[in-house]
Write a structure and sequence with these properties.
Layout (H helix, E strand, L loop, with lengths): L1 H21 L3 H26 L7 H4 L9 H5 L2 H20 L4 H31 L12 E6 L9 E7 L2 E9 L10 E9 L2 E5 L4
Parallel strand pairs: 3-5
Antiparallel strand pairs: 1-2, 1-4, 2-3, 4-5
Helix pairs in contact: 2-5, 5-6
Length: about 210
């Protein structure tokens, strides 16, 4: 009887969810999909950050601010910032819809809220990066180490990419350039051959 009752309860819950979903307009469904999907991605991101190990591994590490104008695009357009943007965008849109606002103002407020979140994250990451740069990390210790590209690196120093690399026992995300004649794709192993400044590495895909 207990098992039968549990199954009946589960069926009722599924029916309620189905009815709730079908009762919504397509406009609202879109915001729910965005909010739930990116909230799940955000939770996974947080769990992976904590599971990565040392206390230095954090959202700040993942989006270190680079003190060069050429790199500011990478600061805003990162996977983590996009996840944060759409998470806030989705939930703000739902709140506006529940508040009886029109489609235009709902989209506008959702965009503003998402953008403000990205700006706040960028400011936070910049502050945290500056604290790290004044700390004990010696970037020259990265020379000779192997890392992995997080954002692709243009060939012949044509722009900046990013790499994940473990230096002094902690995982860091640092800006990188390469002298290789071919761009280095995301997810490729690279070797640090030199440093340009306290936050920028020179890497190569030739590991030997």
């Amino acid at each position: 009887m207990l098992i039968f009752g549990s199954q009946t309860c589960s069926v009722m819950v599924l029916l309620d969810i189905s009815s709730w979903w079908q009762s919504m307009a397509m406009f609202e469904k879109i915001f729910w999909v965005i909010a739930l999907l990116f909230s799940l991605m955000f939770l996974v991101q947080v769990v992976l950050s904590f599971a990565a190990g040392d206390g230095d591994v954090s959202a700040g590490d993942a989006d270190d601010y680079i003190g060069h104008d050429d790199g500011i695009g990478y600061q805003f357009f990162t996977i983590k910032n996009l996840i944060a943007f759409f998470t806030i965008f989705g939930w703000t849109g739902i709140a506006c819809i529940k508040g009886g606002m029109g489609k235009g103002i709902t989209i506008l407020l959702a965009l503003v809220a998402g953008s403000l979140m990205v700006v706040m994250m960028a400011f936070l990451f910049r502050s945290m990066s500056r604290l790290r740069q004044s700390g004990t990390l010696q970037i020259k210790n990265a020379i000779g180490l192997i890392g992995e590209t997080y954002l692709f690196i243009p060939a012949l120093r044509g722009g900046f990419g990013k790499v994940h690399i473990k230096v002094q026992g902690s995982l860091h995300e640092l800006q990188a350039m390469t002298d290789d004649e071919q761009q280095i794709a995301t997810g490729k192993l690279v070797k640090v051959v030199d440093v340009i400044n306290d936050s920028t590495l020179v890497v190569t895909s030739k590991l030997s």
